[in-house]
Amino acid sequence: MNNTHTISTSPLSKTEQESINDITQKITQHSNELRKRYSLLGYQNVIGASVMTLSVTGMVIMGALYIKGIIPGWLCILVNALLTSLIHELEHDLIHRLYFRKQPLAHNLMMLLCWITRPGMPSPWLRRELHFHHHKESGTDTDVEAWITTSGSTWGAKRFLKLIDGFVFGIVNALFAPTWREKIRLTVKVLRLNAPMGLLYWGCWYIFLGYHLYTWASSLMGIAYQPSPTTSMLMNVINSAVVIIVAPNIIRQFCLFFISSNIHYYGDVTPRNPLQQTQVMNHWWLWPFQLFCFNFGSTHCIHHFVVRDPFYLRQMTAPFAHKVLAEHGVRFNDFGTYKRANRYNFTQPES
User: What's the predicted TM-score (pTM) here?
Assistant: First the structure.
């Protein structure tokens, strides 16, 4: 895979292009040195498959322990959220074909496991198209992936809703479209992006919330609610699904989108200029969010310069890479992005 940036059509200055080339070359050289130093890194397919096996097995074990009453629900939720953050990193690497590139059966099996364990996300095969475009046109108006994670939106109730519940946001956004044709088009788009896994995922979540809100309200009003045997059995299944897979992914997705949407610049970046596409966010107070997205804010900027390295190697190269990025003016912990709706320039976006 070509891990450099071909930017012949981009209005970059000679200095910017030289900086991009220098960053890419130095980080690539450093990761090559790590590969030589640690022979285990040469078994990339084995590492990816092992992380997937351990993560999925861990989720199944935690789910079984919860169902048997051996561990509390909160522990299952937190551990599985951590495990799904690993699986997200695997999916991101798989989208770039970093594992089993020449073995489609194994590659697609891993992709399927990523989707099953993170059903609230669109199909990884569909995401591949969006993600490749994100790399090509990061931060521009056509960068759908950045828009999905709320980049470019001003902070408020609308952005917060989009962070915690993309499905409801999509439906609400469709309902407020100016014409019926646009309402239908956007609704179909939301359903298509979420079919079929996401519809089951969000369906479980809304039934869970609705049922428990109803029983809570009934108890407040002094009404004795006695569910039927069928309802009890259905809710046992839904309650377990929420604890084992839905709630962990809601936590993981919120943390990932919060970090991702703020490390990416949007709206006024120079096209195809990785110097402006992302920043590094590694301030100490971000660690609760970083925990559930595998240190994404600290390492994702590296990926925009060197695509070929898997997620665990980015963690290893980060101390060196951060020095190189800083030398070339890539930003660190620019929290002003919250006020600027992710604009790169230090001006407030027009309302």
Answer: 0.91
